[in-house]
Amino acid sequence: MIDGDGKDLSEVRQAESELMGVGREDIFQGPGYTAPGEQASQPLGVVFQGSWRVGADGFARHTRETVKALAKVGVPIHLQAMHIGQGFVNEELPEEVRALEYLTRTSFERNIICIKQVIWTGYEMLLSLIRPRSLLHCPPQVVDSVLSRTIVYTVWERDRVNKDEVDLLNRLGQVWVTNQDTFKAFARSGVDADKLRVVPYCYEPDDVLADPDPENPGKSIYSKGPSWISHPRAATSAVPAGKRFYHIGKWESRKDHHRMIGSFLKAFRPTDDSSLLVKTSKFASGGGYLTPDESVAYWLEDPTVQRNGWTTETFNKRVRIVQKKISEQDIQEIHRRNNIYLSIGHCEGWDIPAFEAKLAGNRLVYTDYGGPPEYATPDDIALPWKFVRVDAAYKWGDARWAHVDAAKIVDALRSVKPPEKRVQSPSLYSKFGRIAVGLRMRGYIQELLDVVEPGVKLEGSVG
């Protein structure tokens, strides 16, 4: 076999075949995707690696939704945890995690693509995540061939990618990101734009877009489905009166909970019909960022906040900070009892709780960068921003993130109006439903196959 430059590739193809095919269980850092000596369940397939075994973690939820979407549109998937031993022992796996275990038993005669859904903080971490151990002593041609069949899918929260990481990403088949701002940041940093694809977070809509009515071709038809997060839109769920602000997310400087609390206390008085609920959990971001208790104490000493009439007693009546673990049903209740979601931190690759607030029919106040602009609607309030250096505690080098002027946050909280009724934009179905995103990913995988293995087509169909 001779390539376009006249080089003999037979040795490379033989080594690649061993790496990508039967009998090399360590190639993608986990066993089970091939079936040596047995009949494989699929002739060809895709290995998917990610942090899927962690129950309530947002990135793990994102990974699970991605896999479900691929399976929904008929892509043969073998699912692996990114790190052996990650998550829970089997007896403790949450139900939503255990439901995907069947995909860990899928076997292929030959794996053709590997997708790795990962987040990294530096070159060495990225290298360890995308380069299989079995490539450590392989010739460069073999390494490049395997990397050319690898897709990295990431969620990004800063304005750039380091140069050495860019060089590594450009050796891959494709790089998937969650939003247009991240696409631009990667391309601006030097990642080959031809390799970049935007793949949003997805969900299973409670109303599934059905075939158009032949008598009304311009009218969309919806049928009832299983999504729990949209239940607050039910007829029995009236929008609560007043301004009921809320936020769900780990306590860290990137999400800027401290300024969120201060902005609320500056925008309103205890006598106003407004409240704030922060569902959070401890996160070791370091760098001297104030804890929830320290943040509350700080703001109650602020002269502007005191002039507004806030005391410890009035604060406890209008503001609630919840740090304990709660169920999905409790999360649903938070969306039902509140009506304005705050996503006013420095950057979000997607912000799943904000997205689910839109699915629940609530209003957004959001930093106009990253994930939220992808699903926000004109009746939400977009906050203008400028780039500032990332907190040194994150160890992201010279990277920057979005920063909103504090006065603009206060003005937005005062001017935003709760929704009169809970409705969803039709684009939430057509753009972010599981089938819609699954078909997008399937198309991207086929695009890569057309490059690395012309003539090979994905089998299977939409389920």
Could you characterize what this model shows?
- By secondary structure, the chain is an alpha/beta fold.
- It folds into 2 domains: 10-202 and 433-452, Rossmann fold, CATH 3.40.50; 228-424, Rossmann fold (3-Layer(aba) Sandwich), CATH 3.40.50.
- It is 32% helix and 17% strand.
- The protein has 16 helices and 16 strands.
- The strands form 4 sheets. It has a 6-stranded parallel beta sheet with strand order 2-1-3-4-5-6, sandwiched between helices.
- Helix 1 (10-20) packs across helix 5 and helix 15 (426-432) packs parallel to helix 16.
- It is globular, with a radius of gyration of 24 Å.
- The relative contact order is 0.13.
- Residues 1-9, 12-32, 84-90, 208-212 and 220-224 have low confidence and may be disordered.
In short:
By secondary structure, the protein is α/β, with parallel strands linked by helices.
